[in-house]
Design brief:
5-stranded antiparallel β-sheet, 13 strands, EC 5.4.2.12, 2 domains, binds zinc ion, Alkaline Phosphatase, subunit A, Metalloenzyme, single chain, 8-stranded mixed β-sheet
């Protein structure tokens, strides 16, 4: 048996007046997901345990078969893994954003989506001026960088994600609590260094937002994962354009497969992801395919883009995988689900349970659910389960079959 998990990031939503009370999933034309629902089993998955933030890191950890209550240690350690930065014992990884401060307010959490080339120059200057053996800065992609601090520094500080406080006063949202003094000092000292940097002088001249401060959040220690093989006795791989998801895969001991043209955005190479996924199963037991586009559309509050992203996901990823699975010599079990809802009206994630389906090419246990959406799946025979239990559920079903 081969296993395939297809994740449409943020697909789930609320019912919308402008859709006559339908959700985006109900409105979107999704013949492949609906087919698999009609010919498979449906349920709702809780991917974000109570008390944890509804981030993609937590939710996808669940989908990949890891209980976030046991394994989640923060966002930045996952990003560190995907960037190839090893964390020693007592090392704390922080996400270090390049942000724009305007008149004392947090104007932009992304410094105008600064290019990686510009950002690298700035972060190298920051590391030269502020870095020490105990405080190491690493450039990443666009505005997303890392600080690794030794000796537990700032592990317990209360840090605020800058995208949650856009427009807010910087001083109100600075790191607080144990160990925050060093973090605050670094942020304050970064400002004159960045303000006068040639990269920012050029950006200002071009009418772009300057990256005139650094900002820390999402910190944590390296999580102590058991590998996927240890937990489930399966080999596998992960396909995603997103660092967090790759980082989860690395800690889980799964192979990371890069697909040309995978962007994490609406223009991603959907078909390529599906084709690489099916090819990966020649040598492995399971593949996890993560598609970011519906979440991006949700964050933009763009209904049309979200409908398009979901229809593209259904046609090009789910459809391609379904056709290939049916033709495959080996039997396949396929799961389709969002990690969490990203409702258009909220433009951010929620912790609500998400619809999921299980479809098998082998023999199809079927329940009465006919369509893949938030409401219909409530009637599914699988009921409400913890997302982190789904992988084991598949393995058990394969054994029974
Ligand atoms: Zn997500």
């Amino acid at each position: 048996m081969k296993y395939i998990i297809l994740i449409g990031d943020g697909m789930a939503d609320f019912s919308l007046d402008e859709l006559g009370g339908k959700t985006v999933l109900q409105k979107a034309n999704t013949p492949n997901m609906d087919y698999m629902t009609r010919n498979g089993l449906a349920g709702l998955a809780i991917n974000v345990p109570e008390g944890l933030p509804p981030g993609s890191d937590v939710a996808n950890m669940s989908v990949m078969g890891y209980d976030p209550d046991v394994y989640y240690s923060g966002r930045a350690p996952l990003e560190a893994a995907s960037m190839g930065i090893p964390l020693e014992k007592n090392d704390v990884a922080f996400r270090c954003n390049l942000i724009t401060i305007d008149d004392g307010n947090i104007a932009d959490h992304s410094a105008g989506h600064i290019t990686s080339e510009e950002a690298r120059e700035l972060m190298e200057t920051i590391d030269r001026e502020l870095g020490t053996d105990e405080l190491r800065f690493y450039p990443g992609i666009s505005y997303r960088h890392l600080l690794v601090a030794s000796n537990d520094l700032g592990a317990k500080a209360d840090c605020t994600p800058p995208h949650d406080v856009i427009g807010g006063e910087m001083m109100d949202h600075m790191p607080k609590g144990e160990g925050s003094d060093v973090l605050c000092r670094l942020i304050e000292e970064s400002m004159p260094i960045l303000e006068n940097h040639s990269v920012n002088e050029k950006r200002i001249k071009e009418g772009k937002s300057p990256a005139n401060a650094i900002w820390f959040w999402g910190q944590g220690y390296a999580p102590s994962f058991r590998t996927f093989d240890e937990l489930y006795g399966l080999t596998g791989s992960v396909i995603s354009a997103v660092d967090l998801i790759k980082g989860l895969g690395i800690y889980a001991g799964l192979d990371i497969i890069d697909v040309p043209g995978a962007t994490g955005y609406l223009d991603t190479n959907y078909v390529g992801k599906a084709e690489y996924a099916m090819a990966s199963l020649n040598e492995r037991d399971i593949v996890v395919v993560h598609v970011e586009a519906p979440d991006e559309a949700g964050h933009m509050g763009d209904l049309k883009a979200k409908l398009q992203a979901i229809e593209d996901f259904d046609e090009k990823v789910v459809g391609t995988v379904l056709r290939a699975a049916k033709e495959d010599d080996e039997d396949c079990m396929i799961v389709v689900l969002p990690d969490h809802p990203t409702p258009i009206v909220l433009r951010t994630h929620t912790s609500d349970p998400v619809p999921f389906l299980i479809y098998s090419t082998l023999e199809n246990e079927v329940d009465s659910v006919e369509a893949f959406d938030e409401d219909s799946m409530k009637e599914g025979s699988l009921g409400v389960v913890r997302g982190c239990d789904i992988v084991q559920m598949l393995i058990d079903k394969a054994k029974q079959a």
